[in-house]
Each structure stands twice: as C-alpha cells, then as structure tokens.
Amino acid sequence: MSIMEYNGSAVVAMVGKNCVAIATDKRLGQRALTVDMGFEKVAPVTDNIYIGLAGLATDVMTLHDRFRMRVNLYKHREERTIEPKTFSNMVSHMLYERRFGPYFVEPVIAGLEKNGQPFICSMDLIGCINYADDFVVAGTAADNLFGMCESLWEPDLGPEELFETVSQAMLNAVDRDSMSGWGAVVHILTPDGVITRELKGRMD
Asked: pTM for this structure?
C-alpha cells in the first residue's frame, strides 16, 4: 500500500456560477482501522480561499499550520489579502522545495477571485498544478469521484444545486471506497459568504 493511502481520504472541489464548493470526508484511519470520525482535511486560508489536503494525516496537520504562517507573512509584507492563484503558486513552491523528501499530500484549492470568478486547482505531492474549470479530486476515492463528477456536474450551477451535486458525488464515491467516508463536510463559497454543511454517511 502506498503511503498516500495509509490514512484514507477523499477531497473534491467543484465550480458553479459565481460560487465554488469544496468537500471532504471525515474519516481518519490506519489502513482498514478507523481511528477518528471527525478529522479536519479542509481549512480556511482567507474568507475566499479554502484548501483541502488528501494524504498522510501528519503531513496534513503540519502543512495546514505552515500555510497559515506563510499567508500571515504575505499579508504583513504585502499589506493585502492573498488571491487564490497567488496562494496556489505559494503552495506549489512550498511542495517543490521539498521534492527530494516530499510531504505526502495532494492539495485541492478552491476560492473566489476579486471579480467573483471561481477558481479551483489541485496538485501532486511535488507541486505540479492542475488548473480546471469544472472539478478537481484527490485521495483514495479519486477514481470514484472522477466518475461521479463526470456524470453529475453541469455548467453554471447555483449554490444550492452545486451543494446537491457535490454532496451526491462525494457520498456515492466514498461508499465504494473502504479507506474513506464516515460522513462528509461541504463548504460553498459565494460572494455573500461561506455556507458549511455536514453530511451523514454510511459508517460500516
């Protein structure tokens, strides 16, 4: 088993009309053993940017703290709030500088630009950026998420439709992956604010 699959995870970000969603499962495991049912894999960076990390749980916690530090330094140095594309380049650089002893994570970034346009991207563990205008996925349930998102996603979804779409994709994907699941958390970023909802899932 790959070290990337040791703790299990499922993260998906999806674009709507002037809104963006990011969702993750809640399970923390050691291979097939479930350790926790409320592990935070998605964290806010600013009011308009969220990052989800799939991969090794220790590196997930380490990087959440390092990203918070770097963003605070950027804010003090530049005297402005970081934009999603700038933050994605910062994350890519942080991962690439450790390429010979990498963090075992796959980041998924979702945010809204200044003009309200949605932004999503994902990366591999050494920071190669994959920009998308529909959806990006990561984790042990990535193959299942790709299939569900290809089937359900449509352009120009409103916030409620986007929530329903990303929720169905997440729940149906993790039902077919024994390493992830046990409920999910969905964040919908809109120009008016962030909507956060928790989903109940199968726990067997």
From this structure: 0.95
Place of tokens 């928790």: 198
Residue in the structure block whose two tokens are 């024994």: 178
Do 125 and 54 touch, CB atoms closer than 8 A? Answer: no
Helix (H/G/I), strand (E/B), else coil: 18? coil
CB 126 within 8 A of CB 112: no
- 8-state DSSP, 110: E
Mind listing the pLDDT tens digit for each residue in 116-136? 899 999 999 999 999 999 999
> Could you give the 3-state DSSP secondary structure of residue 140?
coil
Looking up tokens 């569900």 gives: 148
Residue (of 69, 25, 19) closest to 175 by Cα position: 25
Q: How many CB atoms lie within 10 A of CB 99?
A: 11
Q: 3-state class of 85 per DSSP? A: helix
Q: Which amino acid is located at 120 in the chain? A: I
Collapsing DSSP to helix, strand or coil, 174 comes out as: helix
